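user: can you give me the structure for this one chain? C-alpha cells are fine.
assistant: on it. calling the predictor now.
[tool input]
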Amino acid sequence: MSAAQRVTAELDRRGIQVAVLGRIGQDLSKYGLKYSHAAFVYREGSATPWRIVHLLNTCGTSKSDLWYEGVGNFFLDDLFAYDALVMVPPPATAQALLARLPRGKALRSVHDADYSLVAYPFSTRYQNSNAWVLETLAAASARDATLNNREQAQAWLKMAGYQPSEMELGTFTRLGGRMFKVNVAFDDHPNELRYAGHIRTVTVDSIRRFLATRGEGWEIFEIPAKP
C-alpha cells in the first residue's frame, strides 16, 4: 500500500492522467532484466480514483483475461521489490489511451486468451501480459492506420523497430517449463532460435527501450521503494 501511495502521489504531483506502470514481481537479474510486469494506470478525471488495467494469467491454466483493479492491489502480489517504473505517453497517445482504457471491448481487439509466459512477440499463437500492453500501445500510437487486431499491431511494431528481449535458456529449462508449467510454451518461437536456446519475448525493459528511442516525447522515470 505504501508503494501504491508513492506512485499515485507522484502521478498527482506531475499532473499525469495515464501511464504504463512496471513492477518487480520476481528477480530477473540473471537475464539482465529488472521489471517483470507492466500495466496501464489511469483515471478519467481528478475526482475519480486511479485504476489499473492489465492482463493476468489465470492460475494453473494456460488462459488469461483482462483485469481492472486499484493501484493497491497491483502491489499486493508478494513482489520481489517495490520499485516502480513509470512511462508517460506524449499527449496524442495519452488521449488515444484514455479513449480506449475504460472500454473493455476496445481493449480486447488485441487480446488473446491463449497465454504463455514467454510468448514470441511476432506470433499470435500466445500472448503474455507485457505483449498485450505493447500491442495496445501500438494501436494507440499508430497515426497512419487503424490497427484492429494483433496481426496489424505486430506488423506496426516491426516497422517501428521494436526489438524484444532475448534470454538464453538451456534445454532442461525449456523442456522443464513445457512439461511442468501449463502457462509456458515455446512452440511459437522460430525453430532456429528455440533449438539454440535463444528465447525472445516482450519484457518491461524492452518496452522501455522501445519507447525511449521513439523520439515522441515519452517521459520515463522510476519511483524507488526507498527514496
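assistant: here you go. The chain has one domain: 2-223. The first strand starts at residue 18 and ends at 24.
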